[in-house]
User: Fold this.
Amino acid sequence: MRRYESYKPSGQEWLDEVPSHWEVRRNIGVFDERKEADHPEMELLSVTINRGVIKQEEITAKKDSSNEDKSKYKVVREGDLAYNKMRMWQGAIGASEYAGIVSPAYIVLRPRDTTYARYYHYLYRTKNFIAEANRHSYGLCLDMNSLRYQDFKTIYSPVPPRADVERIVTFLDQKTAEIDTAISKKEQLIKLLQEQKSILINQAITRGLNPDAPMRDSGVEWIGEVPAHWQERRLKMLSSFITSGPRGWSEILADEGAIFLQSGNLNDSLGVDTLKAHRVVVPKGAESKRTRLMDNDIVVCITGANTGRVAIANIDGQEAYINQHLSLIRLKESNPRFVAYSLSSQGRTYFYLCQYGLKEGLSLFNVANAPIVLPPLSEQEEIVSFLDEVVEQVDAAVSSAISQCDHLRELKSSVIAASVTGQIQH
Assistant:
């Protein structure tokens, strides 16, 4: 890409060099702080990390009905910038296209020249500026860092000529829209692939692979018809052992020791991620023997955001245990992968119904009574072989699409950073 004719040192480490005809000024000479308030009737706005300033109704469909006194909320005018003092280290800043009000905890900036609003919207969301802003922030730790206005105004920012700014903003508005559209299409593809995967699994574990097989009603509403020779079973009838993990072991985590699986170590493809799992020094006793995993054990998440997620313990004989948010199921004769596919598909509906409107999480009773429609063992193996191949292909396509999204996001970030710091000319 084309660069400007000549460059000069910016005097700021985070900026490096800038085009020779650009200025670099302290923010106190670029912005004024807007302290206007006492307009509680104005629309509520919010500052987000991903998009900047948006209408609060875009975050929640619920109309604000709080009785909180909004007379001290700060007014934001079109062309202002606003940032969240406590989340500036994450990039919660942006230019506003709306007039409205924001929390008193936010800082509202009025550019001396509103032509520059979109330019600074892009600049202040770059990684380099966020790092510089964080250097001027104060707090007990990163999560509590706060960027006060008196510190923001001491930071230096580039001030290009207005003509350059207009070209930069025009280019970035168009380019980022193109990239966002491409990302959106990839994300839609990912969603469709995941839906296709769910449908294929559901059909295989409830209908089998023979489209001409005689069917009958399963007696379970959400399962419907199944091959006539399949049998309905409860998970406890197929298992030799069902338990949950021990309590209190989070206090004995260590850098080395046995694998200690948590719900976050279960993925969406019946696998467990042992490399990222915590380690634990295992105490002696019956509880250790009870909760130790064996290869081909089934693991079900029974509490938390991942409730109902299922995995197979392929741990290559390593010493591994589950925490209290997981259930361990050891089968007798059934194919573990067929049962795991069933639990991850139809079992999801059952697990959802078990906790809907009643409680958070599942009991071991819920897990033990999960319905499984079971074909003969040889047919289980055929279905598993088919699903493993299909799922691998779909997962590979999803992984590729996710990688492409990541690449597009990196491209977007690099294009913005190079444009707003003058490393490329438009």
